[in-house]
Amino acid sequence: MSTDELPDYDAVIVGAGVCGIFQAYWLQKLGFRWSAFERGSDVGGTWYWNRYPGCRFDSESETYGYLFSRELFQEWTWRERFAPREETERYLHYFVEKFDLRKHMQFNCKVTSARWEERRRCWIITLSDGRSVSSRFLLTALGLLSDPTLPRYPGIERFKGTSFHTYYAPKEPIDYRGKRVAVVGTGSTGVQVICEIAEQVGSLTVFQRRPNWCAPLNNAVFSAEETAELKDRYDEICELCGSTPSGYVHNAVAKRTFDVSKEERVEFWERLYADRGFGKWLGNYKDVLTDPEPNAEYSKFIAGKIRQRIKNPAVAEMMIPKDHGFGTRRVPMERGYYEAFNQDNVELVSLEDTPIKEIDETGILTTARKYEFDIIVYATGFDAIIGSYEKLNVVGRDGLRLMEKWKAGPRTAFGIAVPGFPNLFTLAGPQSGSVATNFPRGIEDAVNWTSNLLAFLREHKCTRIEAAQAAEVQWLAEVQKWSKRILFGQQNSWFTGYNTNVDRRRADAALIYAGGQIRYRKVLAQQAEQGYPAFDVQ
Ligand SMILES: Cc1cc2nc3c(=O)[nH]c(=O)nc-3n(C[C@H](O)[C@H](O)[C@H](O)COP(=O)(O)OP(=O)(O)OC[C@H]3O[C@@H](n4cnc5c(N)ncnc54)[C@H](O)[C@@H]3O)c2cc1C
Fold first, then answer.
1. Which ligand 1 atom lies nearest to the CA of residue 128?
2. What's the pLDDT score for residue 2?
3. Which of 78, 118, 452, 537 could cross-link with 61 by S-S, CB 3.0 to 4.6 Å?
4. Backbone angles phi, psi at 121, to 5 degrees
5. How far is the C-alpha of 411 from the C-alpha of 409, rounded, in Å?
Protein backbone atom coordinates (compact mmCIF):
# COMPACT_ATOMS: atom_id res chain seq x y z
CA MET A 1 0.00 0.00 0.00
CA SER A 2 1.24 3.52 -0.68
CA THR A 3 0.02 7.04 -0.09
CA ASP A 4 -0.74 9.44 -2.94
CA GLU A 5 0.32 12.54 -1.10
CA LEU A 6 4.10 12.77 -1.40
CA PRO A 7 5.99 14.20 1.58
CA ASP A 8 8.55 16.98 1.06
CA TYR A 9 11.40 14.47 1.26
CA ASP A 10 11.95 10.75 0.92
CA ALA A 11 14.37 10.90 3.80
CA VAL A 12 15.60 13.44 6.34
CA ILE A 13 18.83 13.02 8.27
CA VAL A 14 19.32 14.75 11.60
CA GLY A 15 22.99 15.49 12.28
CA ALA A 16 25.97 15.96 9.97
CA GLY A 17 28.78 14.18 11.79
CA VAL A 18 30.63 11.07 10.60
CA CYS A 19 27.35 9.15 10.59
CA GLY A 20 25.02 11.73 9.04
CA ILE A 21 27.29 12.57 6.14
CA PHE A 22 27.86 8.92 5.29
CA GLN A 23 24.10 8.42 5.26
CA ALA A 24 23.88 11.48 3.02
CA TYR A 25 26.35 9.87 0.62
CA TRP A 26 24.08 6.83 0.38
CA LEU A 27 20.86 8.78 -0.13
CA GLN A 28 22.53 10.75 -2.89
CA LYS A 29 23.75 7.55 -4.50
CA LEU A 30 20.28 5.98 -4.31
CA GLY A 31 18.73 9.07 -5.89
CA PHE A 32 16.45 9.82 -2.92
CA ARG A 33 15.00 13.26 -2.33
CA TRP A 34 16.74 14.10 0.92
CA SER A 35 17.92 16.79 3.26
CA ALA A 36 20.13 16.84 6.36
CA PHE A 37 19.55 19.24 9.23
CA GLU A 38 22.47 20.14 11.45
CA ARG A 39 22.35 22.50 14.42
CA GLY A 40 26.04 23.45 13.98
CA SER A 41 27.17 25.86 11.25
CA ASP A 42 29.00 23.17 9.28
CA VAL A 43 29.65 19.45 8.99
CA GLY A 44 31.82 17.42 11.35
CA GLY A 45 29.75 16.70 14.47
CA THR A 46 32.21 15.74 17.20
CA TRP A 47 35.06 17.22 15.13
CA TYR A 48 33.19 20.45 14.51
CA TRP A 49 32.19 21.10 18.12
CA ASN A 50 35.05 20.00 20.38
CA ARG A 51 37.54 22.82 19.77
CA TYR A 52 39.33 22.40 23.05
CA PRO A 53 43.14 22.24 23.08
CA GLY A 54 44.46 18.75 22.48
CA CYS A 55 41.28 17.28 20.96
CA ARG A 56 42.04 14.21 18.85
CA PHE A 57 40.82 10.67 18.42
CA ASP A 58 42.55 7.57 19.74
CA SER A 59 41.66 5.38 16.78
CA GLU A 60 44.44 4.85 14.26
CA SER A 61 43.74 7.52 11.63
CA GLU A 62 43.61 5.11 8.71
CA THR A 63 40.99 3.04 10.53
CA TYR A 64 38.92 6.04 11.56
CA GLY A 65 38.26 7.26 8.02
CA TYR A 66 35.58 5.67 5.85
CA LEU A 67 36.79 2.41 4.38
CA PHE A 68 34.07 1.76 1.81
CA SER A 69 35.92 3.59 -0.96
CA ARG A 70 39.37 2.51 -2.11
CA GLU A 71 39.61 5.73 -4.10
CA LEU A 72 38.94 7.91 -1.06
CA PHE A 73 41.46 5.94 0.97
CA GLN A 74 44.12 6.50 -1.71
CA GLU A 75 43.32 10.19 -2.16
CA TRP A 76 43.41 11.22 1.46
CA THR A 77 46.71 11.43 3.31
CA TRP A 78 46.60 11.37 7.09
CA ARG A 79 49.35 13.46 8.61
CA GLU A 80 49.33 12.03 12.13
CA ARG A 81 48.82 8.47 13.31
CA PHE A 82 46.11 9.73 15.64
CA ALA A 83 44.74 12.79 13.95
CA PRO A 84 43.91 15.96 15.85
CA ARG A 85 40.44 17.48 15.56
CA GLU A 86 41.42 19.91 12.81
CA GLU A 87 42.74 17.14 10.55
CA THR A 88 39.62 15.04 10.96
CA GLU A 89 37.42 18.04 10.32
CA ARG A 90 39.35 18.69 7.08
CA TYR A 91 38.87 15.05 6.10
CA LEU A 92 35.10 15.24 6.63
CA HIS A 93 34.94 18.45 4.60
CA TYR A 94 36.88 16.74 1.84
CA PHE A 95 34.40 13.86 1.88
CA VAL A 96 31.40 16.18 1.66
CA GLU A 97 32.92 18.16 -1.24
CA LYS A 98 34.08 15.06 -3.10
CA PHE A 99 30.59 13.60 -3.16
CA ASP A 100 28.87 16.97 -3.53
CA LEU A 101 26.67 16.51 -0.48
CA ARG A 102 26.58 20.03 0.88
CA LYS A 103 23.85 21.27 -1.46
CA HIS A 104 21.19 19.29 0.41
CA MET A 105 22.41 20.12 3.90
CA GLN A 106 20.95 22.84 6.07
CA PHE A 107 23.06 24.27 8.87
CA ASN A 108 22.25 26.25 12.00
CA CYS A 109 19.10 24.21 11.88
CA LYS A 110 18.14 22.33 14.99
CA VAL A 111 15.39 19.75 14.80
CA THR A 112 13.16 20.46 17.78
CA SER A 113 10.59 17.70 17.32
CA ALA A 114 9.49 14.89 15.04
CA ARG A 115 5.97 13.50 14.96
CA TRP A 116 4.76 10.46 13.04
CA GLU A 117 1.68 11.01 10.92
CA GLU A 118 0.05 7.66 10.24
CA ARG A 119 -2.42 8.82 7.60
CA ARG A 120 0.29 10.17 5.29
CA ARG A 121 2.91 7.71 6.45
CA CYS A 122 5.49 10.35 7.09
CA TRP A 123 7.31 12.26 9.78
CA ILE A 124 6.52 15.91 10.45
CA ILE A 125 9.79 17.49 11.46
CA THR A 126 9.88 20.83 13.22
CA LEU A 127 12.95 23.06 12.99
CA SER A 128 14.31 25.71 15.31
CA ASP A 129 13.65 28.42 12.71
CA GLY A 130 9.93 27.70 12.88
CA ARG A 131 9.63 25.69 9.66
CA SER A 132 8.28 22.18 9.51
CA VAL A 133 8.90 19.65 6.77
CA SER A 134 7.56 16.18 6.03
CA SER A 135 9.62 13.14 5.21
CA ARG A 136 8.82 9.49 4.55
CA PHE A 137 11.82 8.32 6.56
CA LEU A 138 13.56 9.88 9.53
CA LEU A 139 17.22 8.97 9.98
CA THR A 140 18.70 10.14 13.25
CA ALA A 141 22.49 10.56 13.32
CA LEU A 142 22.50 12.54 16.55
CA GLY A 143 25.74 11.25 18.00
CA LEU A 144 26.10 9.47 21.30
CA LEU A 145 28.46 12.07 22.75
CA SER A 146 26.68 15.20 21.62
CA ASP A 147 24.75 16.36 24.68
CA PRO A 148 27.35 18.00 26.95
CA THR A 149 26.64 18.32 30.66
CA LEU A 150 27.95 20.87 33.15
CA PRO A 151 28.40 20.00 36.81
CA ARG A 152 25.78 21.30 39.18
CA TYR A 153 27.89 23.55 41.40
CA PRO A 154 26.07 26.52 42.89
CA GLY A 155 27.11 29.83 41.37
CA ILE A 156 28.57 28.35 38.16
CA GLU A 157 26.98 31.17 36.13
CA ARG A 158 28.57 33.86 38.31
CA PHE A 159 32.16 33.36 37.18
CA LYS A 160 33.39 36.52 35.41
CA GLY A 161 36.43 35.07 33.66
CA THR A 162 36.36 32.79 30.61
CA SER A 163 34.63 29.46 31.19
CA PHE A 164 33.26 26.79 28.89
CA HIS A 165 32.38 23.14 28.53
CA THR A 166 34.92 21.49 26.24
CA TYR A 167 32.21 20.68 23.66
CA TYR A 168 31.55 24.42 23.33
CA ALA A 169 35.18 25.59 23.43
CA PRO A 170 35.25 28.88 21.52
CA LYS A 171 36.07 28.89 17.79
CA GLU A 172 38.60 31.68 18.33
CA PRO A 173 41.71 30.11 19.88
CA ILE A 174 42.33 31.10 23.50
CA ASP A 175 45.72 32.30 24.64
CA TYR A 176 46.47 30.23 27.75
CA ARG A 177 49.98 31.61 28.24
CA GLY A 178 50.56 32.89 31.74
CA LYS A 179 46.91 32.39 32.73
CA ARG A 180 45.54 30.83 35.92
CA VAL A 181 43.56 27.92 34.57
CA ALA A 182 41.27 25.34 36.17
CA VAL A 183 40.32 22.06 34.51
CA VAL A 184 37.37 20.27 36.10
CA GLY A 185 37.21 16.60 35.16
CA THR A 186 39.87 14.03 34.26
CA GLY A 187 38.14 11.78 31.75
CA SER A 188 39.45 11.40 28.18
CA THR A 189 38.77 15.05 27.35
CA GLY A 190 40.18 16.57 30.53
CA VAL A 191 43.33 14.51 30.14
CA GLN A 192 43.82 15.76 26.57
CA VAL A 193 43.37 19.38 27.67
CA ILE A 194 45.80 19.02 30.57
CA CYS A 195 48.51 17.45 28.39
CA GLU A 196 48.18 20.24 25.84
CA ILE A 197 48.16 23.32 28.08
CA ALA A 198 50.18 22.34 31.17
CA GLU A 199 53.39 23.84 29.79
CA GLN A 200 51.80 27.05 28.49
CA VAL A 201 49.76 28.21 31.45
CA GLY A 202 50.87 30.30 34.40
CA SER A 203 49.22 27.85 36.76
CA LEU A 204 46.99 24.85 36.27
CA THR A 205 44.69 23.46 38.94
CA VAL A 206 43.16 20.11 38.07
CA PHE A 207 39.96 19.22 39.90
CA GLN A 208 39.76 15.45 39.78
CA ARG A 209 36.32 14.05 40.45
CA ARG A 210 37.40 10.42 40.16
CA PRO A 211 40.75 9.10 38.90
CA ASN A 212 40.90 7.18 35.63
CA TRP A 213 43.45 4.72 34.30
CA CYS A 214 45.31 6.57 31.57
CA ALA A 215 47.87 5.18 29.13
CA PRO A 216 50.30 6.64 26.58
CA LEU A 217 48.98 7.19 23.07
CA ASN A 218 52.47 7.33 21.54
CA ASN A 219 51.39 9.41 18.58
CA ALA A 220 53.71 10.38 15.70
CA VAL A 221 53.66 12.04 12.32
CA PHE A 222 53.65 9.56 9.42
CA SER A 223 56.81 9.55 7.33
CA ALA A 224 56.48 9.54 3.53
CA GLU A 225 57.45 5.85 3.48
CA GLU A 226 54.88 4.97 6.10
CA THR A 227 52.17 6.81 4.17
CA ALA A 228 53.02 4.94 0.97
CA GLU A 229 53.06 1.64 2.80
CA LEU A 230 49.71 2.42 4.41
CA LYS A 231 48.09 3.10 1.08
CA ASP A 232 49.38 -0.21 -0.24
CA ARG A 233 47.78 -1.95 2.71
CA TYR A 234 44.19 -0.83 2.03
CA ASP A 235 42.81 -4.37 1.59
CA GLU A 236 44.66 -5.64 4.63
CA ILE A 237 43.44 -2.75 6.81
CA CYS A 238 39.82 -3.29 5.75
CA GLU A 239 40.12 -6.98 6.47
CA LEU A 240 41.83 -6.47 9.80
CA CYS A 241 39.30 -3.92 11.07
CA GLY A 242 36.50 -6.16 9.86
CA SER A 243 37.89 -9.15 11.71
CA THR A 244 38.24 -7.77 15.25
CA PRO A 245 35.23 -7.44 17.59
CA SER A 246 36.15 -3.82 18.28
CA GLY A 247 36.76 -2.72 14.69
CA TYR A 248 40.22 -1.55 15.72
CA VAL A 249 43.47 -3.05 14.50
CA HIS A 250 43.98 -4.37 18.03
CA ASN A 251 42.68 -7.73 19.08
CA ALA A 252 42.98 -9.69 22.30
CA VAL A 253 45.61 -12.43 22.19
CA ALA A 254 44.45 -16.03 22.55
CA LYS A 255 46.32 -16.66 25.81
CA ARG A 256 45.04 -16.14 29.34
CA THR A 257 46.96 -13.96 31.78
CA PHE A 258 47.96 -16.70 34.20
CA ASP A 259 48.76 -19.25 31.45
CA VAL A 260 52.13 -17.57 31.04
CA SER A 261 54.98 -16.92 33.44
CA LYS A 262 55.23 -13.62 35.28
CA GLU A 263 58.33 -12.71 33.20
CA GLU A 264 56.54 -13.35 29.91
CA ARG A 265 53.52 -11.40 31.10
CA VAL A 266 55.48 -8.36 32.20
CA GLU A 267 57.56 -8.38 29.03
CA PHE A 268 54.36 -8.44 26.94
CA TRP A 269 52.80 -5.64 28.95
CA GLU A 270 55.96 -3.53 28.64
CA ARG A 271 55.73 -3.92 24.88
CA LEU A 272 52.06 -2.94 24.87
CA TYR A 273 52.77 0.10 27.02
CA ALA A 274 55.51 1.30 24.67
CA ASP A 275 53.41 0.64 21.58
CA ARG A 276 50.86 2.93 19.93
CA GLY A 277 47.19 3.36 20.67
CA PHE A 278 44.58 1.16 22.26
CA GLY A 279 46.66 -2.06 22.16
CA LYS A 280 47.17 -1.76 25.92
CA TRP A 281 43.40 -1.86 26.32
CA LEU A 282 42.13 -4.08 23.52
CA GLY A 283 45.18 -6.08 22.51
CA ASN A 284 45.74 -7.73 25.87
CA TYR A 285 45.36 -11.28 27.18
CA LYS A 286 41.83 -12.38 26.42
CA ASP A 287 40.65 -12.51 30.05
CA VAL A 288 41.88 -9.07 31.16
CA LEU A 289 38.58 -7.35 30.40
CA THR A 290 36.32 -10.21 31.45
CA ASP A 291 37.82 -11.70 34.60
CA PRO A 292 38.49 -9.66 37.78
CA GLU A 293 41.72 -11.44 38.78
CA PRO A 294 43.69 -10.97 35.57
CA ASN A 295 42.28 -7.46 35.41
CA ALA A 296 43.61 -6.73 38.89
CA GLU A 297 47.04 -8.08 37.91
CA TYR A 298 47.22 -5.83 34.86
CA SER A 299 45.92 -2.87 36.88
CA LYS A 300 48.80 -3.45 39.30
CA PHE A 301 51.24 -3.25 36.39
CA ILE A 302 49.72 0.04 35.19
CA ALA A 303 49.68 1.42 38.77
CA GLY A 304 53.42 0.72 38.86
CA LYS A 305 53.86 2.83 35.73
CA ILE A 306 51.92 5.69 37.31
CA ARG A 307 54.10 5.52 40.43
CA GLN A 308 57.23 5.59 38.26
CA ARG A 309 56.04 8.60 36.31
CA ILE A 310 54.87 10.83 39.17
CA LYS A 311 57.57 12.09 41.54
CA ASN A 312 55.32 12.87 44.51
CA PRO A 313 54.06 9.53 45.90
CA ALA A 314 51.03 11.17 47.52
CA VAL A 315 49.94 12.61 44.16
CA ALA A 316 50.54 9.24 42.48
CA GLU A 317 48.25 7.53 44.99
CA MET A 318 45.56 10.16 44.38
CA MET A 319 45.72 9.38 40.67
CA ILE A 320 45.56 5.59 40.88
CA PRO A 321 41.95 4.41 40.67
CA LYS A 322 40.92 2.23 43.59
CA ASP A 323 37.29 1.67 42.64
CA HIS A 324 37.68 0.07 39.21
CA GLY A 325 40.16 -1.90 37.20
CA PHE A 326 42.05 -0.86 34.07
CA GLY A 327 39.90 -0.72 30.95
CA THR A 328 36.57 -1.13 32.67
CA ARG A 329 35.84 2.49 31.80
CA ARG A 330 36.92 4.39 28.67
CA VAL A 331 40.72 4.64 28.85
CA PRO A 332 41.98 8.22 28.39
CA MET A 333 45.03 8.22 26.13
CA GLU A 334 47.75 10.71 26.93
CA ARG A 335 51.07 12.30 26.17
CA GLY A 336 52.93 13.36 29.30
CA TYR A 337 49.83 13.41 31.48
CA TYR A 338 51.39 12.07 34.64
CA GLU A 339 54.60 14.05 34.12
CA ALA A 340 52.53 17.26 34.02
CA PHE A 341 51.91 16.80 37.75
CA ASN A 342 55.68 16.96 38.35
CA GLN A 343 55.68 20.58 37.18
CA ASP A 344 55.66 23.33 39.82
CA ASN A 345 52.80 25.16 38.13
CA VAL A 346 50.40 22.16 38.20
CA GLU A 347 48.34 21.20 41.22
CA LEU A 348 45.93 18.31 41.72
CA VAL A 349 42.82 18.74 43.85
CA SER A 350 40.87 15.60 44.65
CA LEU A 351 37.19 16.41 44.83
CA GLU A 352 36.66 13.17 46.70
CA ASP A 353 38.67 14.74 49.58
CA THR A 354 37.68 18.39 49.20
CA PRO A 355 34.50 18.79 47.16
CA ILE A 356 33.62 22.02 45.37
CA LYS A 357 31.18 24.04 47.47
CA GLU A 358 30.50 26.81 45.00
CA ILE A 359 31.80 28.94 42.17
CA ASP A 360 31.81 32.70 42.40
CA GLU A 361 32.88 35.68 40.27
CA THR A 362 36.60 34.99 40.67
CA GLY A 363 37.01 31.24 41.08
CA ILE A 364 36.24 28.00 42.82
CA LEU A 365 35.63 27.42 46.51
CA THR A 366 36.21 23.91 47.85
CA THR A 367 35.67 22.68 51.38
CA ALA A 368 39.38 23.39 51.94
CA ARG A 369 40.01 26.79 50.32
CA LYS A 370 39.30 29.36 47.60
CA TYR A 371 41.11 29.23 44.21
CA GLU A 372 41.15 32.20 41.81
CA PHE A 373 41.20 31.72 38.03
CA ASP A 374 41.21 33.49 34.69
CA ILE A 375 39.82 30.46 32.85
CA ILE A 376 37.72 27.47 33.94
CA VAL A 377 37.48 24.53 31.55
CA TYR A 378 34.68 22.07 32.29
CA ALA A 379 35.69 18.68 30.91
CA THR A 380 32.64 17.14 32.47
CA GLY A 381 31.38 14.87 29.74
CA PHE A 382 28.05 14.11 28.23
CA ASP A 383 24.59 12.84 28.92
CA ALA A 384 25.89 10.04 26.76
CA ILE A 385 23.98 7.89 24.32
CA ILE A 386 20.48 9.06 25.26
CA GLY A 387 20.80 12.81 25.89
CA SER A 388 20.40 14.01 22.29
CA TYR A 389 17.44 11.68 21.78
CA GLU A 390 15.74 13.17 24.77
CA LYS A 391 16.18 16.67 23.34
CA LEU A 392 14.72 15.63 19.97
CA ASN A 393 11.13 15.11 21.21
CA VAL A 394 10.13 12.20 19.02
CA VAL A 395 6.46 11.19 19.02
CA GLY A 396 5.56 7.95 17.28
CA ARG A 397 2.44 5.97 16.51
CA ASP A 398 -0.62 6.62 18.71
CA GLY A 399 1.08 9.59 20.35
CA LEU A 400 3.76 7.46 21.99
CA ARG A 401 6.73 9.56 23.13
CA LEU A 402 10.13 8.02 22.59
CA MET A 403 11.39 9.04 26.01
CA GLU A 404 8.27 7.67 27.64
CA LYS A 405 8.96 4.37 25.95
CA TRP A 406 12.61 4.59 27.01
CA LYS A 407 11.83 5.49 30.63
CA ALA A 408 13.65 2.44 31.91
CA GLY A 409 16.32 2.64 29.22
CA PRO A 410 16.35 2.29 25.44
CA ARG A 411 14.24 -0.42 23.84
CA THR A 412 15.12 -1.05 20.22
CA ALA A 413 15.37 -3.61 17.49
CA PHE A 414 19.11 -4.00 16.83
CA GLY A 415 19.80 -0.47 18.02
CA ILE A 416 18.49 0.77 14.68
CA ALA A 417 14.69 0.73 14.83
CA VAL A 418 12.07 1.16 17.53
CA PRO A 419 8.70 -0.61 17.67
CA GLY A 420 5.96 2.04 17.80
CA PHE A 421 8.07 4.39 15.65
CA PRO A 422 7.57 3.46 12.01
CA ASN A 423 10.05 4.62 9.37
CA LEU A 424 12.51 5.83 12.02
CA PHE A 425 16.09 4.59 11.90
CA THR A 426 18.25 5.47 14.88
CA LEU A 427 21.54 5.10 13.03
CA ALA A 428 24.38 4.00 15.27
CA GLY A 429 22.05 4.81 18.15
CA PRO A 430 21.54 3.39 21.64
CA GLN A 431 22.03 -0.41 21.75
CA SER A 432 23.70 -0.40 18.33
CA GLY A 433 27.07 -1.96 17.65
CA SER A 434 28.89 1.29 17.07
CA VAL A 435 29.52 2.69 20.53
CA ALA A 436 31.52 -0.26 21.80
CA THR A 437 33.68 -0.21 18.67
CA ASN A 438 35.85 2.03 16.60
CA PHE A 439 32.85 4.26 15.82
CA PRO A 440 33.20 4.72 12.08
CA ARG A 441 33.40 0.99 11.54
CA GLY A 442 30.12 0.48 13.39
CA ILE A 443 28.64 3.52 11.66
CA GLU A 444 29.48 2.19 8.19
CA ASP A 445 27.81 -1.13 9.06
CA ALA A 446 24.63 0.52 10.33
CA VAL A 447 24.36 2.99 7.47
CA ASN A 448 25.10 0.38 4.78
CA TRP A 449 22.42 -1.87 6.21
CA THR A 450 19.82 0.89 6.55
CA SER A 451 20.51 2.16 3.07
CA ASN A 452 20.07 -1.28 1.56
CA LEU A 453 16.82 -1.59 3.47
CA LEU A 454 15.61 1.75 2.11
CA ALA A 455 16.45 0.57 -1.41
CA PHE A 456 14.56 -2.68 -0.74
CA LEU A 457 11.49 -0.77 0.42
CA ARG A 458 11.53 1.42 -2.64
CA GLU A 459 11.97 -1.55 -4.93
CA HIS A 460 8.97 -3.26 -3.34
CA LYS A 461 6.93 -0.05 -3.34
CA CYS A 462 6.59 -0.11 0.43
CA THR A 463 6.07 3.09 2.35
CA ARG A 464 5.89 1.87 5.92
CA ILE A 465 8.13 -0.31 8.05
CA GLU A 466 7.96 -0.98 11.75
CA ALA A 467 10.00 -3.29 13.95
CA ALA A 468 8.06 -6.00 15.76
CA GLN A 469 7.74 -5.98 19.54
CA ALA A 470 9.29 -9.44 19.70
CA ALA A 471 12.48 -8.12 18.10
CA GLU A 472 12.77 -5.52 20.84
CA VAL A 473 12.43 -8.12 23.59
CA GLN A 474 15.02 -10.37 21.98
CA TRP A 475 17.46 -7.55 21.39
CA LEU A 476 17.20 -6.34 24.97
CA ALA A 477 18.03 -9.83 26.21
CA GLU A 478 21.00 -9.96 23.82
CA VAL A 479 22.29 -6.57 24.95
CA GLN A 480 21.96 -7.53 28.61
CA LYS A 481 23.66 -10.88 28.05
CA TRP A 482 26.80 -9.31 26.57
CA SER A 483 26.86 -6.53 29.09
CA LYS A 484 27.07 -9.07 31.93
CA ARG A 485 29.99 -10.87 30.32
CA ILE A 486 32.40 -7.97 30.37
CA LEU A 487 33.71 -6.04 33.38
CA PHE A 488 32.99 -2.88 31.45
CA GLY A 489 29.25 -3.49 31.66
CA GLN A 490 29.34 -3.63 35.45
CA GLN A 491 31.15 -0.37 36.12
CA ASN A 492 29.66 3.08 36.69
CA SER A 493 30.60 5.05 33.61
CA TRP A 494 28.98 6.82 30.69
CA PHE A 495 28.79 3.47 28.90
CA THR A 496 26.38 2.29 31.59
CA GLY A 497 24.52 5.57 31.88
CA TYR A 498 26.21 6.91 35.00
CA ASN A 499 26.61 10.67 35.14
CA THR A 500 26.62 12.74 38.29
CA ASN A 501 25.68 15.86 36.30
CA VAL A 502 22.18 14.62 35.49
CA ASP A 503 19.37 13.45 37.68
CA ARG A 504 18.65 10.04 36.39
CA ARG A 505 21.11 7.26 36.78
CA ARG A 506 20.84 4.78 33.99
CA ALA A 507 23.19 2.05 35.09
CA ASP A 508 21.77 -1.34 34.03
CA ALA A 509 19.83 0.47 31.36
CA ALA A 510 21.40 -1.66 28.61
CA LEU A 511 22.66 1.27 26.57
CA ILE A 512 25.25 -0.41 24.40
CA TYR A 513 25.63 -3.70 22.59
CA ALA A 514 28.92 -5.26 23.66
CA GLY A 515 28.75 -8.43 21.58
CA GLY A 516 31.24 -6.99 19.11
CA GLN A 517 30.91 -5.84 15.55
CA ILE A 518 31.41 -9.25 13.91
CA ARG A 519 28.37 -10.64 15.69
CA TYR A 520 26.44 -7.42 15.16
CA ARG A 521 27.10 -7.46 11.43
CA LYS A 522 25.92 -11.08 11.28
CA VAL A 523 22.65 -10.25 13.04
CA LEU A 524 21.97 -7.44 10.61
CA ALA A 525 22.99 -9.49 7.57
CA GLN A 526 20.66 -12.30 8.62
CA GLN A 527 17.74 -9.88 8.68
CA ALA A 528 18.51 -8.70 5.17
CA GLU A 529 19.03 -12.22 3.80
CA GLN A 530 15.74 -13.43 5.24
CA GLY A 531 13.69 -10.47 3.98
CA TYR A 532 13.64 -8.55 7.28
CA PRO A 533 11.54 -10.97 9.38
CA ALA A 534 11.75 -8.77 12.47
CA PHE A 535 9.87 -6.01 10.68
CA ASP A 536 6.35 -5.41 9.52
CA VAL A 537 6.68 -4.03 6.00
CA GLN A 538 3.75 -2.52 4.09
C1 LIG B 1 36.54 14.14 22.26
C2 LIG B 1 36.07 12.89 21.62
C3 LIG B 1 36.98 11.95 21.20
C4 LIG B 1 36.53 10.81 20.55
N5 LIG B 1 37.45 9.87 20.16
C6 LIG B 1 37.03 8.79 19.48
C7 LIG B 1 37.95 7.79 19.06
O8 LIG B 1 39.13 7.83 19.35
N9 LIG B 1 37.48 6.75 18.34
C10 LIG B 1 36.17 6.62 18.04
O11 LIG B 1 35.81 5.66 17.37
N12 LIG B 1 35.28 7.54 18.46
C13 LIG B 1 35.67 8.59 19.18
N14 LIG B 1 34.75 9.51 19.63
C15 LIG B 1 33.33 9.29 19.38
C16 LIG B 1 32.81 10.16 18.21
O17 LIG B 1 31.69 10.82 18.68
C18 LIG B 1 32.52 9.29 17.01
O19 LIG B 1 33.73 8.75 16.56
C20 LIG B 1 31.87 9.98 15.82
O21 LIG B 1 32.40 11.25 15.59
C22 LIG B 1 30.37 10.03 15.97
O23 LIG B 1 29.80 10.54 14.81
P24 LIG B 1 28.25 10.78 14.75
O25 LIG B 1 27.96 11.38 13.43
O26 LIG B 1 27.55 9.53 15.12
O27 LIG B 1 27.94 11.80 15.92
P28 LIG B 1 28.44 13.29 16.14
O29 LIG B 1 29.77 13.49 15.58
O30 LIG B 1 28.22 13.61 17.55
O31 LIG B 1 27.44 14.14 15.24
C32 LIG B 1 26.10 14.31 15.60
C33 LIG B 1 25.61 15.63 15.03
O34 LIG B 1 24.21 15.70 15.24
C35 LIG B 1 23.88 17.05 15.51
N36 LIG B 1 22.61 17.07 16.21
C37 LIG B 1 22.28 16.43 17.37
N38 LIG B 1 21.01 16.70 17.68
C39 LIG B 1 20.53 17.52 16.70
C40 LIG B 1 19.26 18.12 16.47
N41 LIG B 1 18.25 17.96 17.31
N42 LIG B 1 19.12 18.88 15.36
C43 LIG B 1 20.15 19.05 14.50
N44 LIG B 1 21.36 18.52 14.67
C45 LIG B 1 21.54 17.75 15.77
C46 LIG B 1 25.06 17.53 16.36
O47 LIG B 1 25.17 18.93 16.30
C48 LIG B 1 26.23 16.83 15.72
O49 LIG B 1 26.84 17.65 14.76
C50 LIG B 1 35.15 10.62 20.32
C51 LIG B 1 34.24 11.56 20.80
C52 LIG B 1 34.68 12.69 21.46
C53 LIG B 1 33.66 13.67 21.97
1. 42
2. 47
3. 78
4. 50, 55
5. 7
Q: Which atom of ligand 1 is nearest to the CA of 438?
A: 11
Cα separation, 429 vs 443, whole angstroms: 9
Nearest atom within ligand 1 for CA of residue 37:
43
pTM of the model: 0.96
How far apart CA 228 and CA 224 sit, in angstroms, is 6
Reference 211, options 309, 349, 345, 305; nearest CA is 349
Domain boundaries defined on the chain: 9-147+383-537, 210-224+242-368
Spacing, Cα 433 to ligand 1 middle (Å): 15
Q: Whose CA is nearest to atom 21 of ligand 1?
A: 46
CA distance 202 to 198: 9
Q: What atom in ligand 1 is closest to the CA of residue 109?
A: 43
CB of residue 410 inside a 6 A radius of ligand 1: no
- Amino acid identity of 196? E
CATH superfamily, region 9-147+383-537 = FAD/NAD(P)-binding domain (3.50.50.60)
Nearest Cα neighbor of 114 from 388, 383, 472, 382 is 388
Q: How far is the CA of 17 from the centre of ligand 1 (A)?
A: 6
Yes or no: say if 289 and 251 are a contact pair by the CB < 8 Å rule. no
Express each pLDDT in 415-440 by its tens digit: 999 999 999 999 989 999 888 899 99
